[in-house]
Design a protein that fits this description.
Distance between the termini: 28 Å
Structural class: mainly beta
CATH topology: Lipocalin
Helix content: under 10%
Strand content: over 45%
Radius of gyration: 15 Å
Strand order of the largest sheet: 1-2-3-4-5-6-7-9-10-11
CATH class: Mainly Beta
Length: 172
């Protein structure tokens, strides 16, 4: 999806996104959760991890006919999303589905970081207002030879839903 910009990404970011087959990466993360009622409900429904430090993380990537399933396990708490290349109005965007919610993300290479920038979203295929689109500082990079991630999801009027950041490396 990134064309020649993919070549500018750090080696570990490229390796994590290699869709040549099923793979598993493991590491640790720090997790913050929003404290408001709505943010707790949203995080709970999606299955986002509970707050914690040095939480063991395993992510299993399973590609299947252009769709990749990401199964994340944070200390025994699992949640899954599906990623695919966008089409039509989402052309050139990465579409990630969490249950009935889809978020179309622009992939932006900025220095040694891959930024994931929300552009639009829908529920059951029905477009939702952009003014309510969750946002956050979400990126991937490499530090000291490890894949490093920061995922922050916050919504207007709701505040922080979840922020998880940490590192991963290929599992044996």
């Amino acid at each position: 999806m990134l064309g020649s910009a993919y070549d500018a990404l750090p080696a570990q970011v490229q390796a994590l996104h290699d869709m040549s087959g099923q793979r598993r990466w493991s590491g640790t993360a720090q997790v913050r959760r929003g404290t408001g009622l709505v943010s707790r409900l949203v995080a709970g429904v999606i299955g986002f991890p509970k707050a914690g430090t040095d939480v063991p993380v395993t992510v299993t990537f399973t590609p299947d006919q252009g769709i990749e399933r990401w199964t994340r396990d944070f200390g025994g708490r699992r949640f899954t999303s599906w990623q695919r290349r966008g089409a039509g109005r989402n052309d050139a965007l990465l579409v990630e589905r969490f249950g009935v919610i889809e978020v179309a993300l622009a992939l932006v290479v900025e220095g040694e970081r891959l930024l994931l920038v929300p552009r639009r979203w829908s529920c059951l295929g029905v477009p939702l207002p952009k003014a309510l689109l969750p946002r956050g500082n979400t990126f991937e990079t490499e530090v000291d030879g490890r894949f490093v991630f920061n995922v922050e999801i916050a919504a207007p009027g709701v505040g922080l839903i979840v922020n998880y950041r940490g590192w991963l490396q290929p599992s044996a």
